[in-house]
Amino acid sequence: MADSQQQTLNLPSLFIVLVVLVLTIRYFFFSTSPNANASTHRGQGADPAHVDQIQQMFPQLNRRDIQWDLQRNGGSVQATTERVLGGRGLERPPPSFQPIQPPSSSPPTRPAPSASKPSHPDLITRYNLTSRLSAVSDPEDSVPAEEIPKPQAAWSQSKAERQAMLQKRREDMVLAARRKMEQRDRTREKGKAKEV
Q: Of the candidates 87, 38, 107, 40, which has an alpha carbon nearest to the alpha carbon of residue 67?
């Protein structure tokens, strides 16, 4: 009876105990933080602030190349900067490297003003008011802005009539502003002529 009550360890039980022991040791001693492990697998090992810092120093570099180099050297801005300044440049990342682009928090950049002449330099040309301007070209014969009849306050039900009314208002306002500007320029010229 003593032999049957004695517990023996058979081969499958021994194997299960070893597997559990190995997994437990690995979990406690060799585990990494979940965030670092996940970021390495997703290709986001580089801090976006570090990438921006390097890109500000070297705007000719590609953002993807910077992220690849930072991920390779453990996020060291100094190592990446020294590599660029040393003339070695940055290696091209492999095609499998797909970094997740951070959301752009900076305001969108505006295109630089072009030196070429714009297609519509002023409102008279833009709204095709040259014919109406030439009809009122003589400032002494033109009607003052205070005497221009005001448009009717009734709002039309027809979309075409409303559009025509608003277009006429816009044209009248542009022409009135033009007349005021010309009148102001004439008074300045007269003031300068009196001073001389």
A: 40
Tens digit of each residue's pLDDT (9 = 90 or more) over 77-124: 999 998 888 888 888 888 888 776 665 555 555 555 555 555 546 777
Under 8 Å between Cβ of 102 and 49: no
Q: For the chain, give the mean pLDDT.
A: 76
Q: Which of 57-61, 90-94, 114-118, 164-168 has the lowest mean pLDDT?
A: 114-118
Candidates 102, 174, 117; CA nearest to 145 is 174
DSSP 147: G
CA-based nearest residue to 83, from 94, 70, 96, 93: 70
Q: What are 175-185's pLDDT values in tens digits?
A: 898 899 899 99
Residue 60 three-state SS:
coil
Q: Which two tokens stand for residue 51?
A: 């990438």
pTM of the model: 0.33
**C-alpha to C-alpha distance for 126 and 120, rounded to whole angstroms:** 5
Residue type, 146: E
Task: Give how far Cα 183 sits from Cα of 139, 186, 193, Å.
Answer: 8, 5, 15
